[in-house]
Amino acid sequence: MAITIKKIAEIAGVSAGTVDRALNNRGRVKPEVAERIRTLAQELNYQPNSVAKSLSIKNKGLKIAVILHIVRNSFFDEVIQGIKKAAKEISDTGIQVVIKTCKDFDADYQLKLIEEALSEDVKAMAIVPINSPLIKNKINELTENGFPVVLLTAILEDTNYLAYVGCDYRRAGKILAGLINLITRGKANLGVLSPTFQMCGHLYRVNSMCDYFSTHCPGIQVSSITEVPNDEIGTYMEVKKMMEEHSDIDTILYGSVAVKAGFRAIRECLGEKPVRIVALDLSDDIKEALLTDNIIATLIQNPKDQGYRAIRILFEFLTSNKKPKNPLCYINTEIIVKECINEAEM
Amino acid sequence: MAITIKKIAEIAGVSAGTVDRALNNRGRVKPEVAERIRTLAQELNYQPNSVAKSLSIKNKGLKIAVILHIVRNSFFDEVIQGIKKAAKEISDTGIQVVIKTCKDFDADYQLKLIEEALSEDVKAMAIVPINSPLIKNKINELTENGFPVVLLTAILEDTNYLAYVGCDYRRAGKILAGLINLITRGKANLGVLSPTFQMCGHLYRVNSMCDYFSTHCPGIQVSSITEVPNDEIGTYMEVKKMMEEHSDIDTILYGSVAVKAGFRAIRECLGEKPVRIVALDLSDDIKEALLTDNIIATLIQNPKDQGYRAIRILFEFLTSNKKPKNPLCYINTEIIVKECINEAEM
DNA sequence: CTGAAAGCGCTTACAG
DNA sequence: CTGAAAGCGCTTACAG
């Protein structure tokens, strides 16, 4: 049997309550005694029983807030699935998870959501942070005060947090480069369509890909790097513009959530001329494009996992005070070809 | 607050013990009373609290056995990592995990291991089953008696079990076909080196790949399908034989754990002639071959996940009597190119 | 600053 | 067949 608080209490000649207060630094223990108990616990290699901890915590009504940066899109629908899965798993501990959606990329509004959550006595927070000083400062302030914040899917520079859960964008860029190199056998004029660089990860990804091309793939030229918005019309216009201005493009990295309109723009410009397309993520539209051979491959970032992990990390912190060994919790990135799609699941 | 046994007891006008006995079919409750309690619990949508369950179970000394089919190899080293990760996570519930390694592919020996485990009062079992009537019958017998058995990494036909955790070999075959089609642009003479068909999943995988070629890839010919053993010398001989007998081979699916010797055989036969190689799994040798461009891509089966999931499923069963909704728990298969390898981690 | 007691929700000897 | 009580290990008012 493992060593318990009761056993430590016996050996130290104090009560269980005192051991608990000492080990969890709750104060109200004579410093010398606390120190003695802590040393003893270490010597005995005491590991608190997490199940008992979770059960005893049940009536405290702990809450975790999840704060998004947009109203919704297909990627975050999946993130939310993962969040809900984790929420269900931890519900027996009495910990609640509340999700707050934001006006698209509205930093003022997001800040209000944070304040709202805090006023509701939330004890931990996962946030898809909008890249604004407003948000950065608030997160830094929270972290300084020991409040656990997990950045979810979007990383921020010059900001402190308990953990970042999301894609390793630089590695994703490298993998995209390798994939495009493989598919094109090292010869391509590439048009890059990226989601907004307002989220710095997207910029890291493109830069990392381009770096890899310039050091490893002399035959691959990046003809254009174009940011595309979240909507169909905006995407159509940007894609059209890129294709018209760069008629040499024979390969495209397609990083927009708006698929139908962008593909129409490509076809309008290229006619029947062949083009190799590699995409990002796996919305229903992307799946369909894969299955109809309009896309050769796509790189996915396991959004469901991301949501799941973020909640689990906060849960661990709340129940066991454990911080992740590595604050950068990178979620796996996967190459998907059409044969990976289970048509039965569609 | 969720509904508890205590609350049901109050409403039903009985004690908590009686509710527990009724809901868990432990007998020693008057049938009418038991029925009434069960109905009530359903109406109230009672969900037992898994944390409390785990805690109360602590002193029962439950044990899970893991029974392997070989002494070791690099793939199963990773499977075991996953098993140990899960074992650590559940250790606070007092459930132990014991691992038993087997003489390589020795069904008699594996049967003895099963008996040994049972005599040690193990309450659940994960097994990498050797494809033999001896083992099949035993597993069927156990399952019939309500004893939870999870098949790990290897599936059996005509056998009943709580769950299978492992690769979806047919889908893996399809993905391999798609990958090879992509890499070769649909023109190849393929030599297939597969691990033993004694494990039927390996056969499913090859067959599924070949089916896909014949329906979707007219330009891809399968020149040879060769089984390779686990050791370097045997692999060398089989590879050499295949390459000598099929000089048209320009593409290889390399499914052997013995990398160095087989690659030597390939080189001895082909000289400087180029060959495209796609591999299976991700041992250190495969990693090195990827990084040196001797392998173009490999398909991995997340062995660590497989071990982890198998234990979690048995844990759920032991603590909550829950069976997985789908007994076929397929673990994800991933395409890996060299850019996916984090050289810092090697 | 410290301890005894009760509680989280489920389970299980034990007594009847 | 049934209930009261104690236990799993940690936490927390409460009394002192």
How does this model look, in words?
Chains A, B: It comes from Caproiciproducens galactitolivorans. Chains A, B: Keywords: DNA-binding, Transcription, Transcription regulation. Chains A, B: Pfam families: LacI, Peripla_BP_4. The structure is a homodimer of 346-residue chains. With 346 residues, the first copy, chain A, is of the alpha/beta class. Chain A contains 13 helices and twelve strands. Chain A has helices at residues 5-12, 16-23, 31-43, 50-56, 74-90, 107-119, 133-144, 169-184, 200-216, 232-245, 260-270, 284-291, 303-320; strands at residues 63-67, 96-100, 124-127, 149-152, 163-167, 188-195, 220-228, 251-254, 276-280, 297-300, 328-331, 334-336. In chain A, the strands form two sheets. In chain A, strands 2-1-3-4-5-11 form a six-stranded parallel beta sheet, with helices on both faces. The first copy, chain A, is elongated and about 85 Å long. The two termini of chain A are 49 Å apart. Chain A binds chain B through residues 2, 49-52, 54-55, 58, 91-93, 171, 174-175, 177-179, 182-183, 212, 296-297, 332-340, 342, and chain B through 2, 49-52, 54-55, 58, 91-93, 171, 174-175, 177-179, 182-183, 212, 296-297, 332-340, 342. The structure holds a DNA duplex (16 and 16 nucleotides).
Computed CA radius of gyration of chain A, to the nearest angstrom: 25 Å
Q: What can be said about the biggest beta sheet of chain A? A: 6 strands, parallel
Structural class of chain A: alpha/beta
Mean pLDDT of chain A: 96
Distance between the termini of chain A: 49 Å
Count of the domains of chain A: 3
Question: Given the C-alpha coordinates, what overall shape of chain A results?
Answer: elongated
